[in-house]
Design a protein that fits this description.
Radius of gyration of chain B: 24 Å
Order of helices and strands of chain A: HHEEEEEHHEEEEE
Largest sheet of chain A: 5 strands, antiparallel
Strand order of the largest sheet of chain A: 3-2-1-4-5
CATH class of the largest domain in chain A: Mainly Beta
Strand content of chain B: 35-45%
Oligomer: heterodimer
Number of helices of chain B: 6
CATH architecture of the largest domain in chain A: Beta Barrel
Shape of chain B: globular
Number of strands of chain A: 10
Structural class of chain B: alpha+beta
Chain lengths: 249, 244
């Protein structure tokens, strides 16, 4: 379970600063309003013929001063790019926060190394907003936040992703280094034993376009079985063994 | 004295009072930072939505289409969304959606308040209007919820995601929520759905139900520990969302 977490020092500072700025602007607006009313009243008493024009100008100033304190303070603070270790996770849900030429999307990610937990991070995407859903992404945790992460879209994921999804990580990494890459079609999927962390060993029978067949052994959560639906094409690396490179890796 | 200026003066006085009233309310209300984003609540909202009785389609999908002929309405599975934000109307999306035969059609732009519910994998009621040179697809807006429920079950039956007996249970049964004891994949997958077996306990002993769910629904079941299905009068269970 992922409980809500308290704001960290950066957020506390960010909101305190936003409130401080807004407080000052509101104070100035109130002072300007009071001063305007006082000036307008004295002017009207001294020069009763002009009171309507004076009131008009005064009201305009009061309206403008009243609009100024509207500063939304609930936007998140800018955070520095963290230098925490790169992790790989699978996007299980993307929620669109704003549509535009660049849409802002919140990704809900399940780290491959720690299934059963969730982290989340925001990205801006152009084109289809759904292109990250169901793929693997790299992320780095913000050091003072437990669940908020920075999405690293440039990082090479192949090795860590393959190591995290293969049943035998050492053999898979060897295959990845010495093997040849190819596209293969999933023929059948067999579910093996359940692991202690809620993932399952999945045996995937593959057949490449050149006719080569093989069997890959992965460890996946049940919802990720959709990545190896029979009939879909996946990227594989063949050696004596074979491993699957999942989308994003 | 010139009294022609009295009307704009009163109007401006009214606006000034309104603006300052709004400013003070805003100031008093907005002293807390925005609540942190909670992905668990996001996922739980998916399974929670299954539990409810049939909602109004218009309210549920939050979309507005201009198609009003109900006779040829059918469900289509959303493949992708493209959209932009309109200042006044909110998100304006167009979809590419797959019909039951496999044909992918473009569903013209719709305004939605719930762009998070009409996401890829979701079934949405569409209708066609044939003009001389092409077919125009759009969302059918004012369907009754029971009608959409029938269309969803018919679509799932046609896509081979449920069998005849599950279709019968889901058509007549009542929505139920159960606490999941164990979730196991069977290894079968079909049109982006994963078949899972859910083991749970009832007052009359341990039971299980098997059905095809979308990936994020399986994740929602895993993380929330609850699943929804139907229980009919004969005591038969069927796994599946009441609605989506």
């Amino acid at each position: 379970m992922t409980p809500l977490e308290e704001p960290d020092a950066l957020e506390v500072e960010h909101f305190a600063r936003a409130r401080r700025i807004r407080g000052r602007i509101t104070l100035v607006a109130v002072l300007v309003t009071v001063a305007t009313i006082v000036i307008a009243v004295t002017w009207s008493i001294n020069d009763p013929d002009d009171w309507m024009s004076v009131a008009m100008v005064a009201l305009a100033v009061v309206i403008v001063a009243g609009v100024c304190p509207f500063i939304p303070a609930d936007f998140p603070p800018d955070r520095p790019v963290p230098d925490t270790p790169l992790e790989v996770g699978c996007v299980i849900l993307s929620k669109v926060r704003g549509w535009d030429t660049e849409s802002h999307v919140s990704l809900v990610i399940e780290p491959l190394a720690r299934p059963g937990t969730l982290v989340h991070g925001d990205v801006s995407v152009s084109g289809s907003v759904d292109k990250h859903t169901g793929t693997l992404v790299g992320f780095r945790r913000h050091p003072t936040k437990r669940h908020l992460v920075w999405i690293d879209r440039q990082a090479p994921l192949t090795e860590s992703a393959v190591a995290a999804t293969a049943a035998d990580p050492d053999a898979a990494l060897r295959t990845l280094r010495h093997g040849t890459e190819d596209t293969a079609r999933v023929v059948t999927v067999t579910v093996g034993a359940e692991q202690a962390d809620g993932r399952w060993v999945i045996h995937v029978d593959l057949e490449s376009t050149s006719g080569r067949t093989g069997r890959a052994h992965c460890v996946l959560t049940p919802d990720r079985l959709v990545m190896v639906e029979p009939g879909t094409d996946v990227t594989v690396v063949w050696d004596s063994d074979c491993v699957i490179r999942f989308p994003g890796a | 004295m010139e009294y022609g200026m009295l009307v704009p003066l009163v109007l401006m006085g009214f606006i000034a009072v309104l603006v300052w009233y709004a400013t003070i309310t805003f100031w008093l209300a907005d002293t807390e930072p925005a609540p942190p984003y909670n992905p668990i609540a996001e996922l739980r909202a998916i399974t929670d939505a299954w539990r409810c009785d049939l909602p109004e389609p218009w309210d549920w999908y939050g979309v507005r289409g201009d198609h009003r002929r109900h006779s040829n309405a059918q469900m289509a599975r959303i493949v992708s969304r493209h959209g932009f934000e309109d200042q006044d109307l909110g998100p304006i999306l167009s979809y590419r959606a797959r019909l039951i035969g496999g044909e992918v059609v473009a569903v013209s732009s719709v305004v939605t308040r719930r762009s998070d519910r009409t996401m890829p994998g979701v079934l949405i009621p569409v209708g066609v209007r044939s003009t001389s040179d092409r077919d125009e697809w759009s969302v059918v807006e004012d369907l009754k919820s029971a009608h959409v429920h029938r269309l969803i079950l018919a679509h799932r039956l046609a896509a081979d995601l449920i069998d005849e007996s599950t279709h019968a249970v889901a058509s007549t049964g009542r929505p139920q929520t159960v606490a999941v004891r164990r979730l196991a994949p069977t290894g079968r997958t079909r049109v982006g759905h994963i078949e899972v077996t859910i083991h749970f306990d009832t007052s009359s002993g341990p039971r299980e139900m098997t059905g095809f769910l979308r990936p994020h629904e399986v994740a929602a079941v895993r993380f929330s520990g609850t699943a929804s299905g139907y229980l009919d009068d004969k005591g038969r269970w069927a796994l599946g969302p009441t609605w989506y």
